[in-house]
Predict the structure of Glycoside hydrolase family 3 C-terminal domain-containing protein.
Amino acid sequence: MKGKRRRPRTVLLVALALVAGLGATVPAHADDPAYPFRDPSLSVDARVSDLLSRLTLDEKISLLHQYEPAIPRLGIQSFRTGTEALHGVAWLGKAMVFPQAVGLASTWDPSLIRQVGSAVGDEARGFQQTRPAGWGLNLWAPVVNLLRDPRWGRNEEGYSEDPYLTGSISTAYGTGLTGGDPDHLKTAPTIKHFLANNNEVNRDTSTSELRPRVLKEYDEQAFKPAIEADAATGVMSSYNLVNGRPNTVNPALDDTVRTWSSQRLLNVTDAYAPGNLVGSQKYYGTQTEADAAALKAGIDSFTDNDTDSAPTTTAIKSALATGLLKESDVDKAAGDVLSVRVRLGEFDPGGGRYGSIDASVIDSPAHRALARKSATEAAVLLKNQSGALPLKKSAKDVAVVGPLADTLYTDWYSGSLPYAVTPAQGIAAKLGTSVAGSEGVDRIALKDAATGKYVTAGEGDTGAALKESADTGPTSQFDVFDWGSGIVTLRSAANGKYVGYNWSNFVNDQAQPNGWFVQQQFKLEEQTDGTYLLRYAGYETAESWWSNPVYLGPTGTDGTLGLVAKDQAAHYTKDVVRSGVDEAVAAVKGKDTAVVVVGSDPSINGREAHDRTDMALAPAQESLVRAVRKANPNTVVIVENSYPTTLGSLQKEVPALLWTTHAGQETGNALADLLYGDANPSGRLTQTWYRSESDLPSILDYDIIKSDRTYQYFKGQALYPFGYGLSYTSFRYGELKRTGDGYEIPVTNTGSRTGAEVVQLYTHQRTSRDKQPLKQLKSFQRVSLKPGETRTVRLKVRPSDLAHWDVTRSKWTVESGTYDVLVGSSSTDIRARTAWQVKAETIPPRDLSRVTRAENFDDYSAITLVDESKASGTAVSSTSDGAWLKFADTQLGKGAEEFSARLAGTAPGTVEVRLGSPTGTLAGTASFPGTASPYDYTTVTAKLSGAAKGRTDVYLVLSKDLRLSEFNLR
């Protein structure tokens, strides 16, 4: 289970000595190609060492900020870390937009995802001739944070709740981005966000508690594969804390991550995260201390203060002056940066292997075709009752309705769509005729109950500030889109633009909800008298900058609307000018087919800095589906969103359900191909779809083992299980047989259509010293079969793949025993199984006579995991009297006589040693007098009674507010 070791730092010294000899022969002109760092025939290490030797200390320090300045005397251009490329190149103008990351993973097709990554890498290179602001070849993608909780606001950015699938997809995408040769990089992808970042609420101050098994078996396994395969060139540290320590100074950035690769890695911080160490996290007193700690922990590049590098470079220089850093620390980080720049070909003639790529690759015909293919494979058929799908092309009288029927939404990390094919447009193109349509949303007018005046907007593209007036025409009418949780958006009927707050007024000038604060959100709050208050619900603004909710009401002498307190808010009557449901029902009546497109807006239904509290369809959308279904029994529903949806009882009521992410400019063509059978659905879910939010514990609970999270441990009945997805054809599985390095099974297409099956192999360990997953994905293969075709699918799984983390010895172990091997079409649809007898080892009883880390418990109550020191280590902290830790199956032998423990905390307390249970036999009590700080540890001891012998479970019972780092019984 060990990764590749990083190059020793002595390589740098040897290379410097080598280059010192070469330096005597180089020409005087600094930009001469004869300089060793410009010589592609030399090794990367030699070139980096040569360049480092030519830089002044100030120049080396300048490389440690996101915006690295040019060094004219050496002919070196500026460099920037951090071009967003999650599912296409973002924020640089028009570029191909592929399906959201969770959609890419839903293809379960690493070969396709590698092609997508390669296309994105090409398009990133396509901007290199013009180098627009924000461009660079260090790409911040992919996101590999595990989707353990579907309420995470950034669910769309990740791949799966499963580390093996995440590792497979991220490695494929990253390999495409790099080009596959770690010494000659097309781009330099940075995987994010390290580590255990799966909540947005209090994201810079909340701590993700990772007991060793969760850390080793789950969270680290999402990051390791891409780094180990040289499919990524570094990691981004995340905002959150892990076990009480900010990830910006997580020592695992060096001690763990760098052991996974023999290449030098470039680790970066998330934006503004270094400042958080002193600001919101209050972990260090000065930025000098904070930046020094981050550099020593393994950060190479600081993303802070936007383009202003001065605060960072000043802090680093101060740390050097005060002895917090050595110049060798700067050399190490600067060398990591330069290693990536060398491998990108920056110093090669003509920019190296990829230096000639130009803008012609952007939005190329090949990339358009790839976007359509990936959008097609990403969709998952959730339900297909009585063969409702595929539709017949001969039945051309079709209506396409719903709030997402004729629009495409992009997310925060999307590029700008070069063109757009909506679902309605794709279906119309497929049929070669027009289709009936309706967004199915109400058009309303809001009349001030006190004055009789209407809320009115402006005409033309720029709109105008909302005000109250006597106008009753289109300027006083708004289309109301319901996004759930009471949130609505208002689109002016006068110009088709959304109303948003611009820090001064409310103006109808936005093409779609957008921006960091998403200021186009409102709530219509009904009052007891039947009137409504119009509440402003823009992200963060109302919640953080006003102490109470804020509402709209006339504030100007001309009736212009502004923000007011609730008791000053205008009371409006809501006049329905046009019923969205009635219009949609009229559109679908008598049609051969009704297609309803519902879902989410990525700017509203959870996003960066905002988690979801509600995974259901918006009530108005659910009502629309029911009304359409009642009006036309031939109703097909497309759910277009970025996360699992609870769907209520809707999934029982409609004959066909098709799910897709927001899939880019080819969404409409892909959906039409699927609906009409030109493509066979083959996507599979990468997350468990729960029936209710009540199936989930707190979003801040990261212990998937104890809280039974994800398909690995969840014991309830899912709405749709992990790995699920239907097809228009059927597949038969044959006999499962063991081969040399795995299993093989024949799979036959028994239907009448060509289709792709995703054959999934899971294992389950029948008996173990430790709680084991109910099942765990170990291998999969996507196979396309023609009708009647049989193919033998080979699934690789070795005994070493069965290892789990043994907390008694802090090592990976494979236990001897029987393992169930389960192969099927999803985690619950198992078609073949066998038993695998594995001879390995038996975990011996615990030996607590050795010093034992407290974090290596087997179970716990009222315990949190905290930082032992600011630099390293994890301790446990008790949150109440009677908190306990269990150390199972301990061999005390003929008797332990003394208990010794390292404790910290400002309050005195006790640690009891009990046997068998938290209230079992008391073997001894250690008294703790308290220390000066939570990081000031002292050793306490206690004599043990004669009961402390034999083989038993040992419990340590702690009083409140103690920190325990390690202990032993001897």
Notes: Residues 213 and 805 are 6 Å apart (CA to CA). Residues 1-30 have pLDDT under 50 and may be disordered. The chain has 20 helices and 48 strands.
